[in-house]
Amino acid sequence: MSSILGDKGTTVNERQTTVAAVLAGLILVGGAAYFLTGSSSNQRGHSDRTTLVETVRAEERQLNIRIEAVGSTLAKQAIDIVAQVSGPLIEIKFEPGQRVAKGDVLARLEQKTEQASVAEARASAIQANLALKRARSLRAKRNISAATVEERQAAALRAKAQLEQAEERLAKRTIRAPFAGQVGLKRVHVGAQVDVNIILTTLDDLSQVEIDFAVPERFYGQIKKGQNISAKSAAFPDRIFTGVISSIDTRVGEVSRAFKVRALVPNNDGSLPAGMFMHVDVTLEAHKGVVVPEQAVIANAEHHIIYTVVDNVAHKNEVQLGRREVGIVEVLSGIKPDDVVVTSGLQRLRDGVRVKIVSPQSTLEPVSPVSQVKKSANAG
Fold first, then answer.
1. Most buried of 172, 232, 316, 359 (most Cβ within 10 A)?
2. pTM over 0.70
């Protein structure tokens, strides 16, 4: 019986030993697996903390304080060409768009009656002058009275005046350019009956154009005659027209709180017609400042943040901003020229986070002089 118990006891011990061994083995395997998994996870976590960013270097640039406005071109001189008298149109001497000199004939009205009147008046004037000449000769011989000579002299003067009136009436039948310029479209055709209310064409002196535009009243003391302006039109997107301020209105609009300014722009090639819409920029002053791209700035309710990179580590900088221009913003304090500024990947950044720069730029993109002023006129 004891043998049987001994055998059973040995069996239980062996089973316990086997279970303990199995458990120990499972613990060792699990620990090894946990160690390996944790190590791999830590390595992946470390990799995740390296943030990919794009950067650019802050630059010092000359910044211009400018006013942006809109206006329309006006010809230096512009008139509607109309007849001074009524009558049938017998001749048109211009083509649309033609440049003409002062005094050039543009059109003629029927003038046979006026030509006859001139011929008649000229004959009368000749006859009156001959009569005066004979009277003076007779008076020298004392064959006629002085009163007769005076009558002949008055008659000659009347005949001269009548001739001048007839010539004036004839001249009005010929329509001439009052100044040099460019004619517009033909509004009538040969054979039409015209009067003083019918426009034959237009005449514009486009050697220079004027641009009228409005400026907010707070700039009144800063706008001066002779200041340079630049202007741009949608019709010529790659061209900048330059000119100077020629006159400033003496009144400020009670509703608009703005005043009118007129600039004179050379237009020797005639590119700019009258009435063209223009974007105008007026430079008031210039200064140097540190600028970064607008997308580099993180704004919140209290301050602005810019991240810089030093030795592949991101650093948070509270900055004070100045003027904004198209695509860039001036930084008054917080960063210096040549600082490496983060422009992309900002949403994943924290102070002290390691970063990898994937697309560095050494300089900012250039900004055109005209496009820099998009927000100037609306500031304040």
1. 232
2. no
